[in-house]
């Protein structure tokens, strides 16, 4: 009798263990109905955003897309066709953003997946501390890889275009150069005596003039001809030289 009791007790505990280890009837029903795996939703959003962001930022830029976590309580019916992703209006392609993912099957659904776009690339930085009004040369700058999503004020990437420009304020070493920090070097200044040069295919004429404004290379500036008193407008060609059309 005692042995029989022991066997019954062992059988009870074995059944209890099986109940705990095996899936419940509810989860089995959910598996049969088909629940969309969160990883497939995140993968669809990530692949779409990776391609769009790369096209937007262009060559020479590294783009890393990270999908945010979905609510674990979210249970969507498995889609019977490929998931479709899109960007909502006004979505950003750098930093925190969202991607819409939808299923167009018999039981359609749609949700927005939180995403993060991390972008890095080479930008121009100062090699050493530089005072205000420094005329930049190749020895003053270098290219350095930085996280672009942190550079809200913009950045410069072409060393050739920056050389010859002037700093608007003093900068510490390692400062990222932005469009707000540099300006074209003024080759002509208001009140300066300049050379007015007019030429065509046949002749070239040079006269003295007085600049009526400041101008960098290629900019238009008004000049008074000191011989005739006539005011003309020309393009700054070099330091103290303004070209006019004959």
Description:
This protein is α+β, with helices and mostly antiparallel strands. It is 22% helix and 35% strand. It contains 4 helices and 14 strands. Strands 1, 2, 3, 4 and 5 form a 5-stranded antiparallel beta sheet that branches. The chain has a 5-stranded mixed β-barrel with strand order 9-10-12-13-14. Strands 6-7 form a two-stranded antiparallel sheet. A hairpin with a 4-residue loop joins strand 9 (193-199) and strand 10 (204-211). It is elongated, with a radius of gyration of 35 Å. It starts with a helix and ends with a strand. Mean pLDDT is 84; it is low at 1-32.
Structural class of the secondary structure composition?
A: alpha+beta
Strand content is 35-45%
Number of strands: 14
Can you give the mean pLDDT?
84
Helix and strand run: HHHEEEEEHEEEEEEEEE
Low-confidence sequence ranges: 1-32
Helix content: 10-25%
* Major beta sheet summary: 5 strands, antiparallel
Q: What distance separates the N and C termini?
A: 125 Å
Large-scale geometry: elongated
Supply Rg: 35 Å
Number of helices: 4
């Amino acid at each position: 009798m005692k042995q029989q009791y022991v066997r019954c007790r062992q059988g009870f505990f074995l059944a209890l263990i099986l109940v705990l280890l095996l899936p419940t009837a509810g989860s089995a029903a959910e598996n049969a109905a088909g629940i969309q795996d969160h990883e497939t939703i995140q993968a669809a959003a990530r692949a779409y955003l990776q391609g769009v962001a790369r096209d937007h930022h262009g060559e020479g830029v590294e783009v890393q897309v990270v999908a945010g976590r979905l609510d674990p309580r979210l249970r969507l019916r498995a889609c019977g066709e490929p998931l479709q992703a899109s960007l909502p209006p006004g979505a950003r392609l750098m930093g925190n953003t969202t991607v819409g993912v939808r299923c167009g099957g018999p039981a359609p659904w749609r949700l927005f997946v939180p995403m993060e776009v991390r972008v890095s690339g080479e930008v121009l930085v100062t090699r050493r501390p530089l005072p205000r009004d420094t005329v930049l040369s190749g020895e003053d700058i270098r290219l350095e890889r930085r996280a672009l999503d942190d550079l809200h004020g913009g950045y410069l990437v072409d060393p050739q275009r920056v050389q010859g420009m002037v700093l608007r304020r003093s900068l510490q070493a390692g400062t990222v150069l932005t469009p707000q920090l540099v300006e074209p070097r003024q080759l002509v200044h208001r009140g300066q005596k300049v050379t007015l040069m007019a030429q065509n295919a046949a002749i070239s004429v040079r006269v003295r003039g007085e600049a009526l404004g400041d101008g960098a290379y290629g900019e238009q500036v008004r000049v008074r001809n000191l011989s005739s008193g006539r005011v003309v407008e020309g393009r700054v060609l070099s330091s103290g030289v303004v070209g006019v059309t004959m």
